[in-house]
Amino acid sequence: MDKWYMVVVVGPDRPGIVAKVTAALFDGGCNLGEASMTRLGGNFTMMLMVQSEGRERAVKAMLAPVVDSLGLHLHIDSIKGELHHHVEPDVRITLFGEDRSGIVAHATAALAEVGLHILSLESDVAGSEDQPIYVLHIEGAAREGVPALESALEIIASEGIETRLMPIDTLIG
Amino acid sequence: MSVLQILQYPDERLKQVADEVTLFDDPLRAFIHDLEATMRAGPGGVGIAAPQVGRSERIAIVDVSAKKKIKQHGRMVLINPEIIAWQGSVVGREGCLSVPDYTGNVVRAETITITAQDEFGEQQRFEVEGYEARAVQHEMDHLDGVLFLDRLVSRRSDLFKRKVYQ
Prior knowledge:
The complex is a heterodimer of chains A (173) and B (166).
Chain A (H helix, E strand, L loop, with lengths): L2 E10 L4 H11 L3 E10 L2 E10 L3 H15 L2 E7 L11 E8 L4 H11 L2 E12 L4 E11 L6 H10 L3 E6 L3 E2 L1
Antiparallel strand pairs in A: 1-3, 1-4, 2-3, 5-7, 5-8, 6-7
Chain B lengths: L25 H16 L5 E3 L9 E4 L13 E21 L2 E19 L5 E7 H14 L8 E2 L13
Antiparallel strand pairs in B: 1-2, 2-3, 3-4, 4-5, 4-6
């Protein structure tokens, strides 16, 4: 079992998707690696590392019945496994404000400029339909140091987005 | 002085409640030297507890002095430690010598008052706060067979909840 695939499954959310998709993979002799699954709007999204002896088409075939019956989209890519090499974040940034187009693009451009390597990003559209707000959580590795990020946050704040930065000082004990 | 082997989860010995230390002799002090050497051998280790090297006794070492600009007591040998008061709670990221390649968020008391004996059996008392308090609580958990994995809270921020308040 040395082949790894990234399996992406997206579709209208309903209870039981995870159980059915992962059971099909297990029954097909696959092993799961790391996964990220979340509900975005009314859609359920899964990204999972799947280890299989079979080829891409074999993985696709074992998922086809489940995916079809649940009305899901499926996408599979061959990848490198590279487990056991987590990159630790050293900073957490929260941004929030009135929702509008361009928040993510502008904010992440400013942060990339000062050396932020984004390791995870989650965002929600909250508030009400007529007054939506955008809430963004980023964890990353500040390759040019955490203080260097402050200038980017100033730029973001000048565009009316509130910013909070918290260094992550991981304790190893 | 020798570097001891660190047990890794899911080793069952990490789940045991450790015994109280009653004899403060030279072999105990020799073990503490080895335990400290083991803590310093790994990169970034700021604490270690005896159960992590397979010795089920209530012994921990904490030293966060490598971190600059924080309140701390330097090297602390904590034998039979007890938390006698605590205040506040704060979320922070932890990892563990016994759980490689994983870190997670854990809630800890912000300030604690502890009593403990040193390697000669002398009673000591420390007021500990912040990062150092987190380290002490992490190590004391090992003495009760508790890992930070037992205390994980969501990585997603708890600042904003998606609940609708009517």
